[in-house]
Amino acid sequence: METQRLENFRAETRAWLAAHCPAGARGPGPIPNGSTKIKIGHRDTLAWLDLMIEKGWTVPDWPKEYGGAALGKEEYLVLLEEMRRIDARPPLSGFGTSMLGPTLLEFGTDLQKQTHLPRIARAAVEWCQGYSEPGAGSDLASLRTRAEDKGDHFVINGQKTWTSGAQFADWMFILVRTDPDAPKHQGISFLLLPMDQPGVRVKPIRLISGESPFNETFFDNAIASKEDLVGELNRGWSVGKRLLQHERSGMQSLVRGSAGEGEANLPAQAKAALGEAGGKVADPAYRSQVLAYEMNNRAFRLCQRRAVEESDGGAPGPVSSIFKIYGSELQQQHDDLLTKMRGVQGFGAEREATRQWLFYRAFSIYSGSNEIQRNILAKRVLGLPD
Ligand SMILES: Cc1cc2nc3c(=O)[nH]c(=O)nc-3n(C[C@H](O)[C@H](O)[C@H](O)COP(=O)(O)OP(=O)(O)OC[C@H]3O[C@@H](n4cnc5c(N)ncnc54)[C@H](O)[C@@H]3O)c2cc1C
Fold first, then answer.
1. 219 domain residue, yes or no
2. Which ligand 1 atom is nearest residue 136's CA?
3. How many domains does the chain have?
4. Whose CA is nearest to atom 27 of ligand 1?
5. Which of 162, 230, 275, 320 could form a disulfide with 282, with the two C-beta atoms 3.0–4.6 Å apart?
6. Where are the beta strands (DSSP E) in the chain?
7. Is the CB of 34 under 6 A from ligand 1?
8. CB of residue 132 inside a 6 A radius of ligand 1
9. What are the pLDDT tens digits along the chain (386 aa)?
10. Which amino acid residue places its CA nearest to atom 23 of ligand 1?
11. Pocket test for ligand 1, best of 162, 244, 375 (most atoms within 8 A of CB)
């Protein structure tokens, strides 16, 4: 009975996607993040976004009242599989759908959910993450940005750094110190604040490539409303930690693993770079490396899928660190192999591939470095001493 229901859902989804997903929304291409400061000029991308918003499929597992489609876990996985089958890009990505939304569903007040979730679901806002500071990266709980309680609002002073996309974000979720005298994990709160206000200044950090994917963000008497305190005052550490688990979780990687993530079809790329013999990659040494990568990648995807299927209530735990470690290492192996196979074409001439190779060097650092993920696994999963 259950299987029949899923089979029907698969058939309906497949037919709907075939009829509605525009050709220009398949394969690599732009993925909107909801920012009101970025104009999307790509017609098919916009059409795809509108159609998926209407279906509730920008955030398929969220309740309908917040713009989702209330899909169960199994249906959501079927939808992802069917999208991947036709190489459809995710219609929407960003900090709102993958991190803040799931966290608000768990910790937010009714008002916070009603105010913020539908805007995320219909791509009307993009968020950024105000966690790291110049003196607080891996040791995040040392953060010093202060928020003072002024009755109906907080006044914030301090600095964040490495704030990805802050120059395009409309709102920030931020960890602030609200009790400087409490032990460091216990004096932190989780707030939401609008970026467009006089007390917030964003200064892009320029990289050697000339690009500025992230920023320093300064707060000089910035204001956050009391209504935008998520969870209890001074108990923001658990909220902030849960958000990071969502960032690293199996489900999010499954969603991101759809088309458009720059994960090229490696065997096809290898044949294009090295030639083909009898339908196989011509060079036997590279052929075996491509095969090894493909096997590891498929095993990883299946493992993620199993973890998502087995998770209860969708809330990821410390095990999500495994996905962060292995997923980032696999992505880096993929990019290394592709670059080596392309030889002199690997750099410079193939600018997109070069940027991708460089970008994913950072994958083992952002969202908590892989060393820190290993510490989490040692302590929280294996129960080893601190
Ligand atoms: C591309 C990119 C985007 C980012 N985007 C954001 C963002 O949007 N918002 C945000 O808040 N932050 C962001 N960050 C910051 C990121 O979270 C931090 O860089 C990361 O947590 C590491 O902190 P750190 O840079 O201060 O390094 P440090 O904490 O100084 O660590 C330096 C090195 O020491 C190692 N190390 C530190 N402590 C330990 C330990 N206890 N055990 C073992 N090894 C240890 C680390 O693994 C690392 O290799 C981003 C970073 C990058 C690279």
1. yes
2. 26
3. 3
4. 137
5. 275
6. 127-130, 146-149, 153-164, 171-177, 188-194, 200-205, 214-225, 229-230, 276-277, 280-281
7. no
8. yes
9. 568 999 999 999 999 999 999 999 998 889 999 999 999 889 999 999 999 999 999 999 999 999 999 999 889 989 998 998 999 999 999 999 999 999 999 999 999 999 999 999 999 999 999 999 999 999 999 999 999 999 999 999 999 999 999 999 999 999 999 999 999 999 999 999 999 999 999 999 988 777 888 999 999 999 999 999 999 999 999 999 999 988 877 666 666 655 444 455 888 889 998 999 999 999 999 999 999 999 999 898 888 888 877 776 666 778 888 889 999 999 999 989 988 888 877 766 556 777 788 888 899 999 899 999 999 999 999 999 87
10. 137
11. 162
Structure tokens at 117: 């979730």
Alpha carbons 343 and 346: distance in angstroms, whole number = 5
Catalytic annotation, residues: 247
- Please enumerate in sequence order all residues whose Cβ is within 8 A of that of 173, keeping only pairs 6 or more positions apart, or say none: 95, 99, 100, 103, 127, 128, 129, 130, 190, 191, 192, 230, 243
For ligand 1, atom 40, the nearest C-alpha belongs to: 372
The model's pTM: 0.92
Domain range enclosing 208:
127-234
Which tokens in the block code for residue 17? 């996607």
Of all atoms in ligand 1, which is nearest to the CA of residue 166?
A: 8
Residues 367, 267 within the same domain: yes
Answer whether residue 371 is part of any domain: yes
